[in-house]
Amino acid sequence: MTDAPKIVTAAMLVIGNEILSGRTRDANMHFLAGKLTELGIRLREARVVPDIEDTIIAAVNDLRARYDYVFTSGGIGPTHDDITADCIAKAFGVNIDVQPEARRRLEAHYEAGMLNAARLRMARIPDTATLIDNPVSAAPGFRIGNVMVMAGVPKIFEAMVASVAPTLTGGDKLLSRTILALVPEGAVAEDLGALQKQYPDVDMGSYPAFRGGRASTAIVMRSTDRSMLDAAADAMYAIFRRMGGEPFENEIV
After folding, report:
1. Residues 80 and 205 in one domain
2. pLDDT by residue (tens digit) across 188-227?
3. Alpha carbon distance 14, 25 (integer Å)
4. Is residue 143 a part of any domain in this protein?
5. Which of 163-166's residues contact partners 24+ apart within 8 Å by CB, and which partners?
6. What residue numbers bound the domain in which 209 lies?
7. Long-range CB contacts (within 8 A, 24+) of 111-114
8. pLDDT tens digits, 22-47
9. 239, 125: one domain
10. Phi, psi for 90 (deg, rounded to 5)
11. Do 162 and 198 share a domain, yes or no?
12. Rounded Cα distance, 141 and 155, in Å
C-alpha cells in the first residue's frame, strides 16, 4: 500500500475594481499557477473582489482558513483606494503603521525629498508581518500568517513571487501528460469516463478544439504517481487508436 500523496493547497485573491470593470486584464493568476505547480502547491481557487473593505476582509478570512497559502494581488500602492494592507490588518486583528525597515527601503529607493506622504503609505505594514522583497520598485509586500500580500503590477508581482518562493513548503508534485487526437470529444466521452473510474487517482480533463478544420480532443492527465499516470496514458492512446485517431503528445511534465 502506497502512502497518500502530500497535498499542499493555495488560493489567490485578486483585489481591485479595475479588474472587475474590465479596464485591466489580470495576468498574475496564470503566472502564479505555473510557479506553484513547480513547487508542488496546488492552486485550488481564484477569487476577484472589489475595493470594498468588508468584502476583502471576509474573503481573506475565508480563504486563509481553507487553504495552506493565500496570495493576494493589488491594492498596496500609494493612492487612497489602495486599502489592502489595512484590510489584512483588520482580518488578523492587528495594528498597522509605518514599519521602519519598509521605510528605510523606500528612502533608499527615492531621491531626497521624493518620499512624500502618499508614497510613505506603501511602508505601512501590519504588526507581526514580515516583508516580501520587491527588487523592481522597492515598496515591499508582506506575509502575515499564511497570507502573502503582493502588488498587482505583473512585473512586480512576479518579482515578489520569486522572493517568497524559497520560503514555501510544497507537497508531492503533480505530474502531467497531454494526449491529443483528431477524434471528436463526444466519440471518446464514454470510454474516458470508464478510464477515469479505472484510475481514480489520476485527474482527467477533456478539452475539445478544431485543428485544420477537424474536431479534435486533448486529454490532460495529472497525478503524483508517475507509473499510474503512464498506465492511464497508455490506455488513452489505445482508446484513441481504436477510434481511428493517431494520438500524439505536446507536453510531458
Report:
1. no
2. 999 999 999 999 999 999 999 998 889 999 999 999 999 9
3. 11
4. yes
5. 163/132, 163/133, 163/134, 163/135, 164/132, 165/35, 165/39
6. 175-252
7. none
8. 998 899 999 999 999 999 999 999 99
9. no
10. -70, -35
11. no
12. 13
One domain, residues 155 and 210: no
* pLDDT-based confidence at residue 5 (cuts at 50, 70, 90): confident
Q: State phi, psi for 204 to the nearest 5 degrees.
A: -125, 130
Q: Are residues 109 and 181 in the same domain?
A: no
162 grid coordinates: 520569486
Checking 169-172 for CB contacts under 8 A at 24+ apart, the result is 169/8, 170/8, 170/36, 170/39, 170/40, 170/41, 171/5, 171/6, 171/7, 171/8, 171/40, 171/41, 171/42, 172/5, 172/6, 172/7, 172/40, 172/224
- Residue that the C-alpha cell 484513441 belongs to: 240
Q: Is the pLDDT reported for residue 242 higher than 50? A: yes
User: Is the pLDDT at 252 greater than 50, yes or no?
Assistant: no
- Measured in degrees and rounded to the nearest 5, phi and psi for residue 223 equal -165, 155
Whole-Å CA distances, 93 to 63, 96, 134, 142, 243: 16, 10, 25, 16, 60
